[in-house]
Design goal:
Shape of chain A: elongated
CATH topology of chain A: Immunoglobulin-like
Shape of chain B: globular
Number of strands of chain B: 43
Oligomer: heterodimer
Largest sheet of chain B: 22 strands, antiparallel, barrel
Strand content of chain B: over 45%
CATH class of chain A: Mainly Beta
CATH architecture of the largest domain in chain B: Beta Barrel
CATH superfamily of the largest domain in chain B: TonB-dependent receptor, beta-barrel domain
Number of helices of chain B: 8
Order of helices and strands of chain A: HEEEEEEEE
Strand content of chain A: 35-45%
Helix content of chain A: 10-25%
CATH superfamily of chain A: Immunoglobulins
Chain lengths: ~160, ~800
């Protein structure tokens, strides 16, 4: 009886040891989508200046290994210099100041389904009565599986 | 084949082949068979007298019948007795602090008086540890669930920043934490509302759902803790779907004692200093036990000066994690009345803490902070920070009547949590905080939870049965405040009734069966924004305050079961348990609708979620030799509808301020894994231990089919070597221990996680009990992360922002026990 039980224990051990080693090779997507602001006519680039009362066109290339999801754009003031940027080079900043009527823009956009590559363009109206100064331009991009990449660019509105 | 073993296999094959409904029927049959058996059984008593070496009767000595898990204490005159025992072979173990444990074997055929049993003093006071270790061993053999017991000594040796951090050494237990002082348990990769924490018999209710919220428990006030790995809903209710951490009440002081202890703690990494002072006393039937704990710590240090907060580089000054300092002050007072038949104890405690969040990683996006302000001091707590107060009142009463043991627990808890952060407008929130608001401008969130709970349980022992049945009721009121919104206010009522039978088939075999019915109701209040948003309607743009959460009432009920077996043969230990568990969806899962400022995500509940169900098989195989022991505990777990926060491809500008939408959903989930414990004693002084764990989880349906679950711990192993030299009576309980922990890489991830590289770290622990004159000092020293290794912990809250774990940390603790009254 004792040996019998020992054997059961041993078999269980072996089974578990093997199941633990089993590699699951069902390829799941673990790659983040990418935002490329180096293509021709990409905008805004780091330290770019936008003009009040004018239309501005956002343009960037998005890529993913499987399929892109959607993206959103977010422009908000950086008068208190709270913002970071994901870019390496810093831009010259104006002095800190208090917001009176800062420009705020948040909008989400869809991307055609099953796109691996997409050049996004969006037109943004900058009203003429908003505060001039340092702003932050944030791009959020997802892929179909829910991986998200964020890119933050420092801009000026004059 | 002997009849007993046949019975065992009969029961086992029974449970493995049955459908749920058939199982139910047989369980009922099984439970009723107890009553039939009772009529046939003839019952006897065992009694005796316990004295010390000088023939003086000794009270408060634990007398235990291991296989029944029945413990009685000797009374004032040293007498003890067990009543209503079936005939058969018994092993009785008699133990008391400072005395050698005595074991007596007998065959019970008639009422038996064992006469006078003399206890001999033991050489060192380490006995206490041995006793609780033995108690732990006997619990293991008695429970079909996977139970591990740790005591105050274990916590002292492995003292971490919080209770859960200290327990993390146990295989299968991990923590999910934020900063150096807050963490929550993860049992086999599941945590939050899937793990129940019980203190003094009452379920601890804080804000379990939040990864950034710690557990409001003072680790200095704990004594014996049971860790239940696996589905334990049938004992602990709805939330114990992954397991439970059961913090047992402290043993009451010995009679005619008045004493206490002072604990002093210092930590090098976050410059922590702390103290905990305990005072207790007992005169005959009355006793009290009080404690005050104070902790103060600065920002902690990590082995890096640059972290990537979602691609945003953040420099750390002198390796300090900006604004992670904190303070904690806790008060406890217990008082009670103890006789042989009645034990009634009141527990009053208040834990209060304030701690900062890493200043660069909180808000709508990674932030640059005012460095001159933040880096001026490492000990100040600036915004963002959290402040939590947890008040707890418990009465625990036990009544022993013949063969009944009735336990009643009544509790009231008030958890009050505030999170402060500078106002940051998003969506259509006004850029400047309106002065007309009654909510303070910096109060980002507030949670106000009041809980009343009641448990009643009766344990009846008759013949070979130990039948328990009981009722749990809990009522919650949850209020919210703050300028931001995530979870609405709600009321919640839960109740459950259970029946559990433990049948001692023979000396080697125990069979368990349990049934439980739960009913719960949740009432979610409507929440309307305090600011107006522009809505696009067919009639043009309309500006109005949006309703973020609709009023909602949901009722839930569930019928669950559990069946298990223990087979203990000499050195071999086998146990198995199969059970169904369930969990009610929580308010956050049903009605969240806001931005999570830690994850930069927009979290959205689903009001139609169904209660989570889980089926789990637990097995444990052990073998104990004199010099070595091994225990392997595999498990398999299946959820048909696991509630999961799914990161979608959508972004939302309206409610979510442009953030990624994380939507609660349900999917089929399969999990399996195992823990291994191996101990080897080379000599009397030198021993070694190997603790290993492995876990695999996979979603079998839904949007993330093929992916794992978030926070799945990678495989890991801990190798330990302990040297315990014996010196003399002045220097006892000395130990030198090295823990080498190897953790594998985790490539099995799900959005928004990142693959985490493997690592290995060394921890050192040294301690002794020093006696000078009559005064004893317990000294322990630890060096955690000895080589200041830079590594990322896959289950850490700050993993996503690439913040490494705490660097080298030296922990010195000193305990000075004192006594005003000499005990005989």
């Amino acid at each position: 009886m004792k040996n019998y039980l020992k054997n059961i224990g041993f078999v269980a051990l072996v089974v578990i040891a093997f199941s633990a080693c089993k590699k699951d090779e069902d390829a799941i997507d673990t790659t983040y989508p990418e935002i490329d602001l180096t293509i021709a006519n990409a905008s805004p680039v780091q330290c770019a200046t936008l003009v009040r009362g004018e239309k501005f066109t956002f343009r960037a290339k998005f890529t993913d290994n499987v399929a892109l999801g959607s993206y959103s754009l977010d422009v908000h003031h950086n008068f208190d210099q709270h913002n970071h940027t994901t870019e390496v080079n810093a831009c010259a900043q104006d002095a800190k100041k208090t917001a009176v009527k800062p420009f705020l823009y948040i909008k989400d956009f869809s991307i055609p389904t099953d796109s691996k590559e997409y050049v996004a363009t969006a037109e943004i109206d900058i009203p003429s009565d908003v505060d001039a100064g340092d702003y932050h331009f944030l791009i959020r991009l997802t892929d179909k599986e829910g991986w998200q990449t964020i890119k933050g660019v420092s801009i000026k509105i004059k | 084949m002997p009849r007993n073993k046949k019975t065992a296999i009969f029961y086992l094959s029974f449970f493995s082949r049955m459908t749920a409904s058939a199982m139910l029927r047989y369980l009922l049959l099984f439970v009723f068979s107890c009553f039939v058996l009772q009529v046939k059984a003839q019952n006897f008593n065992i009694s005796g007298l316990i004295t010390d070496e000088f023939d003086v009767p000794k009270n408060n000595v634990n007398v235990q019948i291991k296989r029944l898990n029945r413990v009685v204490q000797s009374d004032e005159s040293g007498l003890f007795s067990f009543q209503n025992l079936a005939s058969g072979k018994y092993k009785i173990s008699i133990s008391s602090v400072g005395f050698k444990t005595k074991n007596i074997e007998l065959e019970l055929k008639q009422d038996t008086n064992l006469g006078t049993i003399k206890l001999v003093q033991s050489a060192n006071s380490l006995q206490q540890v041995t006793i609780s270790e033995k108690l732990g061993e006997s619990r293991k053999k008695q429970e079909s669930l996977n139970v591990e017991t740790v005591n105050a000594d274990f916590i002292k040796r492995n003292l971490g920043g919080s209770l859960m951090k200290s327990l993390e050494r146990m295989p299968g237990i991990k923590t999910i934490g934020i900063g150096s002082g807050q963490s929550k348990p993860l049992i086999r990769g599941l945590g939050f509302n899937r793990v129940v924490v019980v203190e003094n018999g009452v379920k601890h209710e804080g804000q379990q759902w939040g990864a950034d919220h710690g557990l409001e428990i003072d680790q200095f006030a704990t004594d014996r803790i049971e860790l239940i790995k696996g589905a334990a809903s049938f004992v602990y209710g709805s939330d114990a779907i992954a397991g439970a951490i059961d913090i047992k009440p402290k043993a009451q002081p010995e009679n005619n004692s008045l004493g206490g202890s002072v604990d002093l703690v210092g930590k090098s990494n976050n410059n922590l200093y702390g103290t905990s002072v305990n005072l207790f006393g007992r005169a005959d039937k009355w006793f009290f036990d009080g404690r005050a704990t104070l902790m103060n710590y600065s920002d902690y240090r990590v082995p890096t000066d640059l972290v990537q907060v979602y691609n945003y580089p953040v420099a750390l000054k002198d390796n300090y994690v900006r604004n992670s300092a904190g303070r904690e002050n806790n008060l406890h007072f217990n008082a009670g009345y103890v006789t042989e038949k009645i034990k009634s104890i009141f527990y009053v405690s208040n834990t209060n803490s304030k701690s900062g969040f890493f200043a660069n990683a909180h808000g709508l996006e990674p932030r640059q902070v005012d460095l001159s302000l933040h880096d001026a001091s490492n000990r100040d707590i600036l915004m963002p920070y959290q402040q939590v107060n947890h008040l707890k009142l418990i009465n625990k009463t036990g009544i022993t009547l013949d063969n009944h043991q009735v336990d009643i627990e009544l509790g009231y808890q008030h958890n009050f949590r505030e999170e402060y952060s500078m106002y940051v407008n998003h969506g259509f929130m006004p850029a400047i905080y309106p002065s007309s608001m009654s909510i303070p401008q910096n109060l980002e969130r507030e949670f106000d939870k009041k809980v009343v709970s009641a448990n009643v349980k009766d344990r009846v022992a008759f013949g070979k049965h130990q039948l328990s049945f009981g009722l749990n009721i809990e009522n919650q009121q949850n209020g919210i405040s703050g300028w931001s919104f995530l979870v609405p206010a709600f009321k919640q009522f839960t109740s459950g009734a259970f029946l559990y039978d433990k049948l001692e088939v023979n000396e080697n075999l125990i069979v368990h069966g349990a049934l439980r019915y739960d009913y719960g109701q949740i009432n979610i209040s409507q929440y309307t924004d305090w600011f107006a948003s522009d809505m696009n309607t067919p009639n043009g743009t309309v500006s109005q305050n949006l309703i973020r959460a609709n009023a909602l009432t949901r009722n839930f009920n569930s019928f669950i079961w559990s069946a298990g077996v223990n087979y203990n043969l000499n050195k071999f230990v086998f146990k198995g348990n199969l059970g169904k568990s369930f969990r009610m969806p929580i308010a956050k899962e049903l009605a969240a609708n806001g931005v999570n400022y830690h994850y930069f995500s927009y979290e959205k509940g689903d009001p139609n979620l169904s209660p989570e169900k889980s089926y789990q098989l637990d097995v444990s195989l052990g073998y104990n030799e004199e010099k070595w022991s091994v225990q392997l505990s595999p498990f398999f777990n299946y959820f048909p509808n696991y509630i999961y926060l799914n990161p979608t491809a959508q972004l939302d500008y309206f409610y979510g301020a442009g953030n990624q939408v994380f939507q609660y959903a349900q999917s089929e989930v399969m999990r399996y894994g195992a823990e291994l414990q191996f101990k080897y004693r080379f000599t009397d002084n030198l021993s070694s231990e190997v603790l290993a764990e492995y876990l695999y989880a996979e979603q079998l349906s839904g949007d993330k089919k093929g992916y794992t679950l978030p926070f799945s711990p990678p495989p890991s192993a801990l190798l330990n070597l302990t040297y315990e030299p014996k010196f003399n009576n002045k220097l006892t309980g000395t130990y030198f221990a090295v823990d080498y922990r190897i953790t594998g890489r985790q490539d099995n991830i799900v959005p928004p996680e990142k693959k985490t590289a493997g690592y290995s770290i060394f921890n050192l622990a040294i301690g002794t009990k020093l006696k000078t004159g009559k005064q004893q000092f317990d000294i322990s020293l630890q060096a955690q992360n000895l080589f200041n290794t830079k590594y990322l912990n896959h289950t850490s809250f700050y993993r996503l922002i690439e913040l490494p774990e705490v660097g080298r940390n030296l922990i010195l603790s000193l305990k000075i026990p004192f006594s005003f009254v000499k005990n005989d």
